[in-house]
Predict the structure.
Amino acid sequence: MSDFTARYLKDYRPSEFTINTIDLTFELDDHKTIVTSEMSVTKKSTTANKLTLDGEQLKLIAVFYNNQALAPSDYQLNDDSLTLSIIDCESTIKIITEIDPVNNTSLEGLFKSGGAFCTQCEAEGFRRITYYLDRPDVMARFTTKVIADKTLYPFLLSNGNKVSSGTLDGNFHYVTWEDPFPKPSYLFAVVAGDFDLLTDSYVTSSGRDVRLEIFVDKGNKDKAHHAMASLKHSMRWDEDTFGLEYDLDIYMIVAVDFFNMGAMENKGLNVFNSKFVLADKETATDTDYFNIEAVIAHEYFHNWTGNRVTCRDWFQLSLKEGLTVFRDQQFSADMHSAAVTRIQNVRVLRSQQFAEDAGPMSHPIRPEKVIEMNNFYTLTVYEKGAEVIRMLHTLVGQEQFKQGIDLYFKRFDGQAVTCEDFINAMADAASIDLTLFKRWYSQSGTPLLTVEENFDEQSKEYTLLVKQTNHPTKDQQVKAALHIPIAIELISECGTKAKLLELKSNSEQWHFNDFKTKPIVGFLAGFSAPVKVNFTQSNNDLATIMTKADDEFLRWDAGQKLYVDTIAKLIADENYQIPLQLIDILAVQLKSDSDLALIAEQFTLPNFHELVEQFKPVNPIVLLNAIEQLKTFIAQGLQDEFLAIYKKHADKIYQNHADAIGERAIKNMALSYLMTLSSYHDIAEQQYANSDNMTDSLASLNSAATNGIAAFDTMMASFEKRWSRTALVMDKWFSLQAAYKGNDVFERLTKLSQHPLFSLKNPNRARSLIGAFTHSNPRFFHCSTGKGYQFLADQICKLNDINPQIASRLITSLIQFKDFDKNRQELMKQQLVRISTLSSLSKDLKEKLDAALS
Ligand code: ZN
């Protein structure tokens, strides 16, 4: 029986003990791995006499206290802990446990992924390996000896530096690793397997030679070069930008197929979902390449923001994640188009984070109450957390921000600290008062800014009035005003002026006197704060911003606003005649000299999820019809232009550089419009047949799926035949099937879930079918019979026993039922109630169901 009790930030107490060193020995075996742990433990206060160690799903074999074997009556053993009496100030404790990696389908702790042993300890997985003080503020020096069969597992890896190795009787061998940096248990890792190894080296700015190693499944070495290049770029960028250098002699990355998340920053030994390592032009899209680089950077940047300075407790998760996401976003912006990178960050916030923040699991970026920590690796902690860091960066500027980072490391290197410690370092370095700003850490919900403007023709004074509203959220009824940096541009005949306003109370106004006629304001340049904006601007004003704003984000956002306004009208009246003026405005944009990737973004309509956020509660089918009407209208209005763009870029040979990526982006954007018109349906088939790269193949298949075109099945059959042995490509195949817009989709889903290559035990595969259906096929997920909800709930019930973390991720779209019409709310709730009656409900699901149904 799981323990469903909540833990609270306010109850944090330091441990009464420190663990100085831990020596681990792993005797790896499929079902009976023996883990021996020897710890040296110090009392922090003389009155401490009971040490309670965390442990779950372990078989305890033996315990020794100062080399004396203990009898069961000497300790207290529970489902989730082991309590020992501690007599001496300095003691040694030795614990032997047995674990079963093959049956560990939760993929937390030690498990087998493909043929390799592998660990995932964050947040609280180490307690599934041995009894320990499994909390981030307990930092010890780890030595790890790994013993395994030398034929099956030629590579035995752990954190730090290799200090010895040798062979043992019976075809076994061992390797011992020593990590010189004290670390919390969540950063521990062990990997054992047979891999192809790509090596390289990197000389740091102070001249340290670092060996770089990427381990991939046999046969995949050629697909690791992009990851290696990304790693080297990240190392250079962190030196150039923040003066941060790598600190060990070796940096290892292992790619595995079975992994719950993207990747993990274990000290010196990152473990990655193979999706974020492997790439070549035939199997990976331009987006995959971009994401691989970003995730490699993210984990690398954690070596400082996360590992050298870590979190005091898990409520502080955003200390490392918000900051590290901000760092990886800045890196991506420097490596590619800054505007396109920013637009993509904003789309994620608007389509997913805002919804989370308004739903039953709403929480501040520093949560105050947690039942299952794995439920808090959220868009809020990561993405909104990064926005909060970005606002600090906007307020103090890059120079001071860098000084704040310097001070943070000067004060806290080697320690486990809080979000407050970080902000204080920033405030001190930049000499600014961030007292009010700190509220972003404790307040949940997305602020709404309401904007009014006035121009006094007499005095020529322009006034901007901004009001913030912070609506109550499920977790928090009472809200206070936040400190919000608002970047604006004032566009007038005398040019464009940029200003940074700071809103610090419920409403404020600003006066500007330098205009002859009313200026047009571009509001929230660069998306300077994670807020919603309510500001009525005419189509003419928006069109002006689209061409005249200096900030490319503002130009893009004005276009998005035009789309949203049109969709609003179509929702209110399906016979609404969209004015042709829209086509004129868009035609100008299509011919602008912006880079092609940015134009492609400008023509990408806000997605379904983003629009749900705008119009909730909404009937999803009415919304989808409105989106399709708008898309078809634009396609008809600009079909000659789209066809010309398509033809211009159709037959180019694949190249992997920014211009070529932009050409593919705009070409596939044009394709997606043309495909809404039936007369162009064969283009997708031709493109599929002629494509020499995955970006183009996938774009053609996608448009075939989402427009339900006849050739879809033939194309998919050929794709399956070609790629049936390439797991990451088959994930795409399953996702395309799940996104297919045809009335037989439920029969298809049933067949797919019985497909020989489908397995709920593989998280990527589960996500590729179930996640893709719920996310990319809203028309059928939300079909009025409730069949879509039922399909999802059926899968969640199965995943509850196999992999609670994945089950808990997938339930997101059901718990946000309030976003839809009453009938659908009822249908979704029925499924939630059904799931809640499962006999062995996991903590992960229980926490979300209770929040949603209360
Ligand atoms: Zn991270």
